[in-house]
Amino acid sequence: MIPKELLRKIRQIELRTRRLVDETLAGQYHSAFKGQGMDFDEVREYQPGDEVRAIDWNVTARMNHPFVKKFREEREQTVLLVVDLSGSGLFGSGDQSKRELAAEMACVLAFSAIRNQDRVGLLLFTEVVEKFIPPRKGRRHVLRVIRDILYHQPKFRGTAMNSALEFAHRVLPHRAIIIVLSDFLGETHPSRSAIAAHLRQRAIHSETLGRLSATVLRQVSRRHDLVAVQITDPYELELPALGRLVLQDAETGEVVEVNTADLRRRSAFALRQGKTQRELERVFRQAKVDAIQVRTDQPYDRALQQFFDTREKRRRHG
């Protein structure tokens, strides 16, 4: 039985995101994720200006004058939302946790997809693939996707993104849009000393994540349209000056005491996190993976609109 509070939260997310999709993002989504293929429509008589390579030689031979094949844009696509449910997603220094923001982002993208006649699937992962929902259409299906992101109780707390991406690659035989929603913190940094500051009610949680494989990213992005949605919290980028605090790794349970009043320590943390972020962006660029950065303390609609605008301009210019 789903708690009434969760049902109310799902309904609130639906109302917020449907308005944003209907008023702003639906057309931009279509332009950003236009079908990669073309479906055959019909043949028609050749007209001056038609490309020679479009001529249907069999029909031309039968009719004794040239005909060309006419194609239409492939409409239905498959969108797979790959959502990180590791322990760090429960953190949020403000009113919204990273998992709640991930659910809202997923809702926006899912409703944009079904408005475009696309099918939407869901893959939830931690150290293992926790759940896979095959792609389908319809509002009820999208609401189930959002419910599972918020309500699913993970069996593990860690992260194994490489395995999740390899699973998605196996279960999607044809080209699809794969959107990964995660914080990606530490994904390119193997050191366990890289503390991500997670504050909630005077507690800080740090996480240690596995190294994200650029090879796996490239393998998946060669077949699919792979997009990374990085969800962060401001306290993961810069430590607040709150004195001595106990840090607990949200995924391993390791506990460390840190003096956040120490300016040098805070500066070193910010420097390290900045370096890690730049390395992650470099890995994305090398693998030709588009990325969107959103934060729990900022509206996400601008980041989405900028992403859609960039994709549309790139498509127009080749």
Describe the overall structure:
The chain has 318 residues and is α/β, with parallel strands linked by helices. The chain folds into two domains: 42-72, no CATH class; 76-316, Rossmann fold. The protein is 42% helix and 24% strand. It has nine helices and twelve strands. The strands form three sheets. It has a six-stranded mixed sheet, with helices on both faces. The protein has a four-stranded mixed sheet with strand order 7-8-10-11, with no helix packed on it. The chain has a two-stranded antiparallel sheet with strand order 1-2. A hairpin with a 2-residue loop joins strand 7 (198-200) and strand 8. Helix 1 (4-32) crosses helix 3 (98-115) and helix 1 runs parallel beside helix 9 (301-316). The N and C termini lie far apart (50 Å). Mean pLDDT is 82; it is low at 188-210.
Q: Biggest sheet, in brief?
A: 6 strands, mixed
Fourth-tier CATH superfamily name of the largest domain: von Willebrand factor, type A domain
Q: Return the CATH architecture of the largest domain.
A: 3-Layer(aba) Sandwich
Can you give the helix content as a percent range? 40-55%
Cross-sheet strand order for the largest sheet: 5-4-3-6-9-12
Number of helices: 9
Assembly state of the chains shown:
single chain
**Tally of strands:** 12
Report low-confidence residues grouped into runs of 5 or more.
188-210
